[in-house]
Amino acid sequence: MNKPLTAVLSPAELEDALRTIGHERYHNRHPFHHLLHGGKLNFGQVQAWALNRYCYQAAIPRKDAALISRIHDRELRREWVQRILDHDGYGDEEGGIERWLVLTDGLGLSRDYVISRQGALPATVFAVEAYVDFVARHPPVVAVASCLTELFAPAIHKERIVGLLENYDFIDDKVLAYFRRRLSQAPRDADFALDYVKRHATTLAEQQGVLDALTFKCNVLWAQLDALYAAYVAPGMIPPGAFDPSQPPC
C-alpha cells in the first residue's frame, strides 16, 4: 500500500497525494487499455472486455447503496443517491447500466448472458465484489475516497471514444453513449467526493485510510485488466466456463 504518513497533511497536500496515486496507479497505464484504444484487439477480445466490464458497471449502484446505508448525514445521502440514479436510471432517464448494455448489444452479446455474469472471468467477479465489500465495511470518508478514481476517468473516456471509433469498424457512436455521458457526470461526482474527503479526513488515521482506499480502488481496476490480458491476450488461458470468443454463447 502507501508509505505510512508521519504527520497530518493540509487539505492541499492531501489532494496532491491523492492525485499522485492516481497518476501512478490508474488503469489507463495498463497494457490492455493501450491495446484496446490503439485498435490492436480483435472483435472477440473487445467483446470480452465489454462483457467483463459490465460486472463492474452493474455493481456501482450496489456499492453506493452500501455506502448510503452507513451514512447518518442526511445531506450526504441526498447528494450520493444521485449516483445510484445515474446508473440504474429513473423515469425517462435510461441510466448508465442500460447504456452499457447498448454497447454489449452492439457487440452481438445476448443481454441475458451479459446480465447473468455467467461468462465473466472469476477474477473480474472477485475484484468487483471485493470493492462492494470494501465500501460496505469502511467508514464513510474512506469509502468516499475509494470513488476518487473518477478524478482521472474523463481523460480515459475521451481517449476511449476516439480510439474505438477510429480503430474498429464494428463500433459506432451510438454504442458509446455511456462514455459520453460520463464526461459530465464523473467530474461532478469527483469534485464533490474530493471536497468531502478534504474536509472530513482530518486525522492521521483518516488520511492514511483515504490514501489507502484510492490505492485499493486503483488495484481493483488494474486487477480486472490483468485478468482480461491473461485470458484473452497472452498466454490466452481462458478459465473454464468463461466467455470464449471461439465458442460464442448461443
From TrEMBL:
<comment type="similarity">
    <text>Belongs to the PqqC family.</text>
</comment>
<keyword id="KW-0884">PQQ biosynthesis</keyword>
<dbReference type="InterPro" id="IPR039068">
    <property type="entry name" value="PqqC-like"/>
</dbReference>
<dbReference type="GO" id="GO:0018189">
    <property type="term" value="P:pyrroloquinoline quinone biosynthetic process"/>
</dbReference>
<comment type="pathway">
    <text>Cofactor biosynthesis; pyrroloquinoline quinone biosynthesis.</text>
</comment>
<dbReference type="Pfam" id="PF03070">
    <property type="entry name" value="TENA_THI-4"/>
</dbReference>
<keyword id="KW-0560">Oxidoreductase</keyword>
<dbReference type="InterPro" id="IPR011845">
    <property type="entry name" value="PqqC"/>
</dbReference>
<comment type="function">
    <text>Ring cyclization and eight-electron oxidation of 3a-(2-amino-2-carboxyethyl)-4,5-dioxo-4,5,6,7,8,9-hexahydroquinoline-7,9-dicarboxylic-acid to PQQ.</text>
</comment>
<dbReference type="InterPro" id="IPR004305">
    <property type="entry name" value="Thiaminase-2/PQQC"/>
</dbReference>
<dbReference type="InterPro" id="IPR016084">
    <property type="entry name" value="Haem_Oase-like_multi-hlx"/>
</dbReference>
<protein>
    <recommendedName>
        <fullName>Pyrroloquinoline-quinone synthase</fullName>
        <ecNumber>1.3.3.11</ecNumber>
    </recommendedName>
</protein>
<dbReference type="GO" id="GO:0033732">
    <property type="term" value="F:pyrroloquinoline-quinone synthase activity"/>
</dbReference>
<feature type="domain" description="Thiaminase-2/PQQC">
    <location>
        <begin position="16"/>
        <end position="226"/>
    </location>
</feature>
